[in-house]
Design brief:
This is N-acetyltransferase domain-containing protein. This protein is α+β, with helices and mostly antiparallel strands. It contains five helices and seven strands. Strands 2-3-4-5-6-1-7 form a seven-stranded mixed sheet, with helices on one face.
Length: about 180
């Protein structure tokens, strides 16, 4: 039996809460409204920076394709630079994303906006459970808001049994839709 995936979305115009909520997600939305996103409650991991790949990093295992669709977490401690996490994404232009606007329950007045899709988030085992992944997603959302002014939402898919991932994405503002 194929794995069923759970879809999460976030309204990245308002970073602290996803406005794209349905009845099932209302409890989560209220909880997120009541508390600030993770990145404002917990300091970032020491020595980690978040950025787009450098030219020499394109074509590597963590950024094999288009560098504009890759975002990195880099450990800069001890005068070294080691990629400890990466995020792969794509952007759908508003006119080409009409089906996604409906699926993600984007309000009609915002349906001409762009949509981001996070296809993969990976953190090295020795950097997990330290906030690296959450901060990387949060910083990516911030960059998307600054770089793509027409972006109205971002979404990703999570396996239903992956409770830790669900919690991490909810903590940075994503809301479960399905």
């Amino acid at each position: 039996m194929p794995a069923v995936l759970v879809q999460f979305t976030v309204d990245i115009i308002v970073p602290s809460i996803a406005l794209l909520v349905n009845t099932v997600a209302c409890v989560t939305a209220r909880r997120l409204l009541a508390s600030p996103p993770l990145h404002t409650r917990k300091p970032p991991p020491s020595g980690i920076i978040y950025r787009e790949p450098l030219p020499e990093e394109v074509g590597t295992a963590y950024c094999p394709e288009d560098p504009s669709e890759c975002f990195l977490a880099v450990n800069t401690t001890n005068n070294a630079t080691e990629v400890v996490g990466y995020l792969h994404y794509s952007l759908m232009a508003g006119d080409g994303a009409s089906g996604m606007h409906k699926l993600l329950k984007i309000p009609k007045k915002m349906r001409t906006g762009d949509i981001g899709y996070i296809s993969d988030v990976q953190v090295l085992p020795n950097s997990q459970n330290q906030g690296v992944g959450s901060w990387m997603v949060s910083e990516w959302l911030k960059q998307m808001r600054e770089t793509w002014p027409k972006i109205v939402a971002a979404y990703l898919l999570v396996k239903p049994g992956n409770v830790n991932a669900k919690k991490a994405y909810e903590n940075v503002g994503f809301t479960e839709l399905m």
